[in-house]
Specification:
Blueprint (H helix, E strand, L loop, with lengths): L1 H17 L3 H20 L2 H21 L9 H31 L2 H7 L4 H29 L7 H13 L2 H13 L5 H15 L11 H7 L3 H12 L8 H31 L1
């Protein structure tokens, strides 16, 4: 009996000290991302508007009813700005409303009770946001190249894809912050109240240069403005500031929203679990 207890202790102690192995952790993270993808594919209420609205807006305002501009082709301009608009929407709706709803349903309590590390839950949502962003940008680029005669260098297509795929990360953090600050009934209203006005003021629907000067000044404090300007920079649309300024601004917003999301998560965790 003594031998068995010693043997059991020898098996249990290393597990409690080291936790999951690297391979086991990687498999958990990948499975969480896989099932998050399957869940989103089974939610047409998410992926149809997330992909469809930016494509519909681009088709309508860039291809069917293009605004005249003497300095740059609007099909190219709106490819960058509607790409940013779509990526921001995917991040805010996937995390802001999705996490808030699952938190209210008790799904996070189930996750917490399982051996799965909680960061894997958020990793799956970040990974699917980047994947859906890549899909949306690919579809928009195909529309622009085929129907809008947008012609860019290979490096510009690649940079646009990278900027828009990973430019949504600050908005993922903002979505988590919203999810832990408001309930599931308020989250859609809060997201929509922030998303559409900030996109308009940031020049994602019409060029920011067409807005009054005080709105252009205010827009510089909004994260969508910097993602839109960065996308325009990489596809050759002239803007008033350097691309590194927008990269720095997006990095700063990502850090700020991550800190606020962490504080809100810890506060909710303390209230729920003591």
């Amino acid at each position: 009996m003594t031998v068995r207890l010693q043997s059991t202790q020898q098996r249990v102690v290393p597990v409690s000290e080291t936790g999951l192995s690297l391979g086991a952790s990687a498999r958990i993270y990948l499975r969480e991302a896989k099932y998050e993808l399957l869940k989103l594919l089974r939610l047409p209420a998410f992926f149809i508007p997330s992909l469809g609205f930016p494509m519909m807006f681009y088709a309508l305002f860039a291809l069917v009813l293009p605004t005249k501009s003497a300095s740059f082709p609007m099909t190219t301009y709106l490819l960058g700005t509607y790409g940013a608009f779509g990526v921001i929407g995917i991040a805010l709706f996937s995390l802001g409303i999705g996490v808030s709803t699952e938190r209210a349903q008790g799904w996070l309590a189930v996750k917490r009770a399982s051996p799965m590390p909680i960061p894997a839950y958020f990793f799956g949502k970040y990974a699917m946001t980047i994947l859906f962003s890549a899909l949306l940008v690919t579809l928009l680029c195909l529309m622009g190249a085929v129907f809008g005669h947008v012609r860019l260098q290979a490096s510009q297509w690649g940079l646009l894809m990278l900027v828009l795929m990973f430019g949504g990360i600050p908005f993922c953090a903002a979505g988590i912050m919203v999810a832990y600050l408001v309930g599931p009934n308020s989250a859609p209203a809060v997201v929509n109240a922030v998303y559409l006005p900030s996109a308009f003021l940031s020049g994602l629907f019409i060029p920011a240069e067409m807005l009054p000067s005080f709105l252009r000044t205010f827009a510089q404090f909004l994260p969508p403005y910097h993602l839109g300007r960065l996308a325009l920079n990489v596809i050759g649309i002239p803007t008033a500031s350097n691309g590194w300024v927008h990269i720095g601004a997006l990095a700063g917003f990502a850090i700020l929203f991550t800190i606020l999301a962490t504080v809100a998560y810890r506060r909710d965790e303390g209230k729920t679990y003591g």
